[in-house]
Amino acid sequence: MATKQTEPVTIISLRKLSLGSPEPQPTESKTFTVEDAVETIGFGRFHIALFLIMGSTGVVEAMEIMLLAVVSPVIRCEWQLENWQVALVTTMVFFGYMVSSILFGLLADRYGRWKILLISFLWGAYFSLLTSFAPSYIWFVFLRTMVGCGVSGHAQGLIIKTEFLPTKYRGYMLPLSQVFWLAGSLLIIGLASVVVPSIGWRWLIRVASIPGIILIVAFKFIPESARFNVSTGNTQAALATLESIARMNRSAMPEGTLVEPILEKRGRFADLLDAKYLRTTLQIWVIWLGISFAYYGIILASAELLERDLVCGSKPKVVETAGDPESQSPCHCHMFAPSDYQTMIISTVGEIALNPLNMLGINFLGRRLSLSITMGCTALFFLLLNICTSSAGLIGFLFMLRALVAANFNTIYIYTAEVYPTTMRALGMGTSGSLCRIGAMVAPFISQVLMSASFLGALCLFSSVCVICAISAFTLPIETKGRALQQIK
């Protein structure tokens, strides 16, 4: 009887033992993406260095572009140029920019942002120096066109900054880059006021080439984009870059293994016109074209208003010499006075005036609504330029216009860099920059030719384009505020 009673106990005990010791299950290894690493590492000393070095590309670009505004009166006199010839210089610079922008975008998505940025700076510095030795107007136009080709690659600096910045800092750090454009604009105007009257415009171009040459040396401290490296399968290089950034920021890397899909289809133009991005791409192109048209229009119009006094329909100033048979020439030979340089400096400072409000708008209202508001205000202030006012009133209107068009550029730069995935981000920026230059190519003929024939007509044209851009910005299908950068489409 005892044996029979103990058997069930033995069986139950064995069952409990078997249930209490399950077979061990294999544990899954942890992984992370570049986006995870960027967010985990956070903002630190590396990003400050990145901001200073890549932001300084704006100094160089601004100096090369603004150079045209301060040199135009001098070459008009030296080579006895007509209005359309002066306008053609700016147009050809932007034609070079337009052609090369798409090419650099394609190459940057396939071979790397850093390489293309370096090549573009070497190219631009070389041809900028050659421009100072131009023996004739034709050579000057050709060499400045080559400079435009080089400047088009500077946008890769913005892309590198965007791809390394944590999401919550992009809306603040990228608009602050406007400080560098402002610094470049003020520097070239200040240099022109001293160098041109004393040793001539050729030395101004040589001096203006120095910042670009210095910056080429500084590029060695900035690595290739980790997002680009993982897209090409170079995970080890991306990991080494991220670990270096973490050490510099005194931060920690995420636990696990860096894993990202290899993206062989990169930098394809067809992807921009894919159904997912078609509407976004077309509207972005319209906005870029319109913003550039308004931006360079007001820069060149500022110079024309000062050089030839077109405000309120007054007649252009022409320097005439008694008994000089060339005094009846249609060419205007009026050099900038010191007060004109001061007015240009004041209006240029306007580019930073709305930066705090622009940052608040971008981060709280979103990219789309913020852009549509500033574009609408730009349209209004173009029309206000037709009001007959004092010199102080003109400076005030120019100041606000420069502030608004700079805010427009800030917002569309950020939006374009954020909305496209890594596989076509550089191409998206490149094609946008290319379309942008169409507006810049047309602007000189409106600001320097049509404005002298019909001041109000030119202002209405600028204003109408800004209204179209405001509507296009408001109806963009994707909002990028708080959105992580996409790796694949």
TrEMBL record:
<dbReference type="InterPro" id="IPR005828">
    <property type="entry name" value="MFS_sugar_transport-like"/>
</dbReference>
<feature type="transmembrane region" description="Helical">
    <location>
        <begin position="179"/>
        <end position="196"/>
    </location>
</feature>
<feature type="transmembrane region" description="Helical">
    <location>
        <begin position="48"/>
        <end position="72"/>
    </location>
</feature>
<feature type="transmembrane region" description="Helical">
    <location>
        <begin position="282"/>
        <end position="306"/>
    </location>
</feature>
<protein>
    <submittedName>
        <fullName>SVOP like</fullName>
    </submittedName>
</protein>
<dbReference type="Pfam" id="PF00083">
    <property type="entry name" value="Sugar_tr"/>
</dbReference>
<feature type="transmembrane region" description="Helical">
    <location>
        <begin position="453"/>
        <end position="476"/>
    </location>
</feature>
<keyword id="KW-1133">Transmembrane helix</keyword>
<keyword id="KW-0472">Membrane</keyword>
<feature type="domain" description="Major facilitator superfamily (MFS) profile">
    <location>
        <begin position="50"/>
        <end position="481"/>
    </location>
</feature>
<feature type="transmembrane region" description="Helical">
    <location>
        <begin position="116"/>
        <end position="138"/>
    </location>
</feature>
<keyword id="KW-0813">Transport</keyword>
<dbReference type="InterPro" id="IPR020846">
    <property type="entry name" value="MFS_dom"/>
</dbReference>
<keyword id="KW-0812">Transmembrane</keyword>
<dbReference type="GO" id="GO:0016020">
    <property type="term" value="C:membrane"/>
</dbReference>
<dbReference type="GO" id="GO:0022857">
    <property type="term" value="F:transmembrane transporter activity"/>
</dbReference>
<comment type="similarity">
    <text>Belongs to the major facilitator superfamily.</text>
</comment>
<dbReference type="InterPro" id="IPR036259">
    <property type="entry name" value="MFS_trans_sf"/>
</dbReference>
<feature type="transmembrane region" description="Helical">
    <location>
        <begin position="84"/>
        <end position="104"/>
    </location>
</feature>
